[in-house]
Structure formats: structure tokens, C-alpha cells
Write a structure and sequence with these properties.
The chain has about 160 residues and is mainly alpha-helical. The protein is built from 7 helices and no strands.
């Protein structure tokens, strides 16, 4: 038996994962863009700092599109596109599409199933972005940059 509370918890966890994916993708995008500017000798030029600052405020879709413009990685593009589609459905359409089903515990099972389906592409993209960001952490530390610690694992947060 599933309850509304079960749906709220599952929705909240998935929405949080989307935010974590967005922040990781924005960080990756800012790093790659910084390297492009550095390679072009423009990292210190006027306006670059403001452009990078604006990137920090990007949404998931904008960050994904910006990264696609710089990196030609079809597999990553496909993965991110699926995650953005899943995230957009979650944030904009999920409760509306189930508005009547939400009234009974039986239909909450269908909602939990749909959340599970949406989680697949989001988890896949998150894992790729997290792995990529973490791979960049050690070289940046070695180069003398201050880099924050690794994020908690899902097990530590009780999500496993």
C-alpha cells in the first residue's frame, strides 16, 4: 500500500537529485568554459568573469545546452537530454498528470512507479556528471586550487 506521504518523499528525493545534478553540471560547465577562455588567452579579459558568474545561475537545460556547444560528446548529449526531459516532467507536469489519481492509496502506487521511471535517466546523468567532476578534483588540488570535499554518498544520506 502506498500513501500520499510515500509519493511526497519519493518526489522530494528525486527533486533533490535533480538539483544536485544541476549544480554538478553547472560546475562542470563553468570549468570547461574557463579552460576554453584560458586556452584562448582570454581568462583575465574584461567580461569573462561576468559571463562565468552568469553561468553559475544556469538551469539544468541551459547548462546542458551550453556544455553541448563546447563538447561534442553525443552519448553525453543524449543522456543529459533524457535527464532534462525527465526533470521537466517532474517539475512541471507530474502532479498535474496525476491530479485525480492522487486521491486514493491504490493510485499512489502508479505515481511511485512513474517517479521510479523518471529516476532512471536522472540517476544516469547524475552519476556521469558526478564522476567527471570528482575526476577533476584531484588535478585541481594538485595545481593549488581550493576544492570542496567530495559530496556525501547516497548510503551516508540514507538513500541506498
Amino acid at each position: 500500500m502506498a500513501t500520499r506521504d510515500d509519493v511526497f518523499v519519493a518526489f522530494g528525493k528525486l527533486a533533490l537529485k535533480c538539483q544536485m545534478l544541476e549544480h554538478g553540471l553547472v560546475a562542470l560547465n563553468m570549468f570547461v568554459q574557463s579552460m576554453v577562455y584560458w586556452g584562448e588567452g582570454r581568462l583575465e579579459s574584461e567580461g569573462v568573469s561576468s559571463k562565468l558568474s552568469q553561468k553559475r545561475k544556469s538551469t539544468l537545460g541551459v547548462a546542458a545546452n551550453d556544455l553541448h556547444k563546447i563538447l561534442d560528446l553525443p552519448e553525453l548529449k543524449d543522456t543529459l537530454d533524457k535527464a532534462v526531459t525527465a526533470r521537466n516532467h517532474l517539475q512541471h507536469d507530474f502532479f498535474q498528470s496525476f491530479s485525480f489519481d492522487f486521491q486514493s492509496n491504490t493510485e499512489c502506487v502508479d505515481m511511485l512507479q512513474r517517479l521510479s521511471e523518471l529516476r532512471g535517466p536522472i540517476d544516469t546523468a547524475y552519476n556521469i556528471v558526478e564522476k567527471t567532476v570528482l575526476q577533476l578534483e584531484e588535478p585541481l588540488k594538485t595545481a593549488g586550487y581550493k576544492v570542496g570535499g567530495s559530496p556525501e554518498t547516497e548510503e551516508a544520506r540514507g538513500e541506498a
